[in-house]
Design brief:
The protein is mainly α and 261 residues long. It contains 11 helices and no strands.
Length: 261
């Protein structure tokens, strides 16, 4: 398992891939922090007024990260779908199975490496978003005293865990579509089409669906379910069930399908 993990990190740690993905994620986090702070004194996309008083609360420091959590999830889905799907498309899985014939162990090692990669990306995004919020706070009249208190540090930790959990949910979806379609282009296309327009359309037509559809639950969990109609614990349980089922389906297909390329 350790050898599989390290081998996968050799691929994930390539300078162009790692640096490019990290740069994209941190740029998105910085943009989220800046735009969120500039919205003080105005209304957000839901029409709710954003006040300096509300942003000065301990959880205000994480508002920028939460605003772009869906984009971080999209990156996690795209990375996992591209990596696993690429292994099928390029025929590298057959070579890997020669060295590691236990299929499920190989899949678990790959997924653990991808999960660690996503955790690094979300950690970098958290640091950048928090730093950007601190930098922009004086410009918008937001007081940061509560941000670096014990409660503020706790909110930063909670924000990281929530966004990471949601991103790992997107990553699980990426693994599932990659194993199903065995092509990076098809996996990314289908995964994004399902998670974004399809679920959004369904939830707009029938609003209760937003409390059960996995991608909508990921978005809700990333923000601590603030502003959503589903409870935090309920969202976590439903998200865990989805990930467990998706992982089980991916594992069965990965183990039983013939490697034809």
């Amino acid at each position: 398992m350790t050898a599989i993990f390290r081998a996968e990190w050799v691929k994930l740690g390539r300078r162009r891939f790692f640096a490019g993905t990290l740069a994209a994620v941190t740029a998105v986090a910085a943009l989220g922090a800046v735009l969120t702070m500039l919205s003080v004194g105005r209304s957000d996309y839901d029409g709710i007024p954003v006040t300096a008083t509300a942003m000065s609360a301990p959880n205000g420091v994480m508002q920028g990260l939460e605003a772009v959590s869906i984009l971080l999830g999209v990156v996690a889905l795209a990375v996992t779908a591209t990596v696993i799907g690429g292994d099928y498309a390029h025929g590298t899985l057959r070579n890997q199975l020669i060295a590691h014939p236990h299929r499920l162990r190989l899949l678990v090692g790959k997924c653990l490496a991808l999960a660690a990669f996503v955790a690094v990306l979300v950690a970098a995004a958290t640091v950048v978003a928090a730093a950007g919020s601190f930098a922009m706070a004086p410009v918008t009249g937001v007081h940061t005293g509560a941000w670096h208190s014990a409660a503020g540090l706790l909110e930063i930790g909670k924000g990281y865990v929530n966004v990471l959990t949601a991103s790992l949910g997107y990553a699980t979806l990426g693994v599932l579509v990659a194993v199903v379609f065995r092509s990076p282009a098809a996996a990314v296309s289908v995964g994004l089409a399902y998670a974004l327009p399809l679920e959004m359309l369904v939830s707009r037509i029938w609003s209760p669906a937003a409390n059960w559809l996995p991608a909508r639950l990921m978005d809700a969990f990333a923000s601590g379910t603030h502003g959503y109609h589903v409870a935090y614990q309920a969202a976590g349980i439903r998200l865990a069930v989805f990930c467990a089922v998706a992982a089980m389906v991916a594992a069965v297909l990965f183990r039983r399908r013939d490697m034809t390329s």
